[in-house]
Structure formats: structure tokens, C-alpha cells
Amino acid sequence: xxxxxxxxxxxxxELNLLPIMNLICLLIPFLLMSAQFIKIGVILVETPRLSRxxxxxxxxxxxxxxxxxxxxxxxxxxxxxxxAECPEGVSADKKLCFPKKxxxxxxxxxxxxxxxxxxxxxxxxxxxxSYATPxxxxxxxxxxxxxxxxxxxxxxxxxxxxxxxxAQNPPVKHAIPTSGCSMKYNKKSGGxxxxxxxxxxxxxxxxxxxxxxxxxxxx
Length: 219
Description:
Layout (H helix, E strand, L loop, with lengths): L1 H10 L6 H17 L13 H13 L7 E4 L3 E6 L2 E2 L13 E2 L7 H18 L14 E6 L5 H12 L21 E4 L4 E4 L1 E2 L2 E2 H4 L5 E4 L5
Parallel strand pairs: 1-5, 5-10
Antiparallel strand pairs: 1-2, 2-3, 2-4, 6-7, 8-9
Helix pairs in contact: 4-5
């Protein structure tokens, strides 16, 4: 009777699966090592319809104007993505738009340059569609040759930064602040900003090309 009771208890016990689990865990790495993996290659193919969509998107993307002012020993040369930007009637064969007078960057040469830059800014490229970004309207690259004097570079920077007073091509339709294209340091923000007086933005009424990239070298 006692033996039968013991046998019933043994049969009713839980099955020990731990050895089997250990065996499976040992076999898994060997199975992975012996398995053959299939390499799948993907080739991107543009359908005619997709190509048309991408080409139309490229056309919609605006191209930067890349307006540049080159300073050489002989004078100024202006260029953009369209080519030379010299005034009408001026030949740019020698890459020269505004030659020096008596071997110097005189005030008249700088004034003529300023008036022409105003024409480009306010007339020829007035339309926002001419620029890739709104900031590009105020952007120019200044490229002085290594032999150009520092004072001449600074005078040129000052001249192209501000809208010329008394310009007639096109005429300036608003009053230019006496302070010109001036900036001041803001202690709260810790940066420089444009001066505003009476709700009038100096940036819009007095500033022309104030975002200048200085690139040393020659074109």
C-alpha cells in the first residue's frame, strides 16, 4: 500500500525542463554559425514619372545670386551668377567695372560704386524671386587682392553698407536716418542689433549690403 502511494506521488510531480533548456541554449549558437544568410541587394531605379517630379522640384528651387565685389590694383569688378554686373556701356573684358582714378580709390570712384550697388539692390534685383533667401538681398562677398590696403577695404565696406543719399537711379523714396546704417550693442541679448527710432527700422531705411563675406584672394 505504501509503495503504491509513493508511486502516485512521483507520477504527479512536475517535469524538470531545465536540462532541455540548457541543451537548447547551447545549440542555438551552433545553429546560427551553420546557417546560410542570403544577401539582398537593393538597386534604386527612377521611373520616368519620378524623374519628372524631381526635375520640377529642382526648377522650383531658387538659385543663389552670389553677388561679389572684387577689388584689384586697377579698380572694382562686380559679378554674380549672371556674369559681370558692370554699369551699362562699361566693358568688362578686362574684369573691370570701376577703374581707379590717378591710381587711387578716390571718393568719386567709391561714390559711383555705391550708386551702382544701389541700382542693383533697389532696381535690377528688387524682386525677391532673384534671391534664394530673404537674407541674400543684403549679402555680398568682398574679394580684395592681397596688395589692397586695409584702409581701402574699410572704406569700401562702409560705402556698400549704406543706402546712398540723393540717389536717382532709382530715387530713394524714404527719409534716411542721419545715423545711417548704425548698430548698437544690446546688453540683455548679448549681441549687436540695428537701431530703431520711432518705430522706423534702420535696417530697412538706411542699410544696403551689410552682410559681407570677406574672401581674401582674387577672382
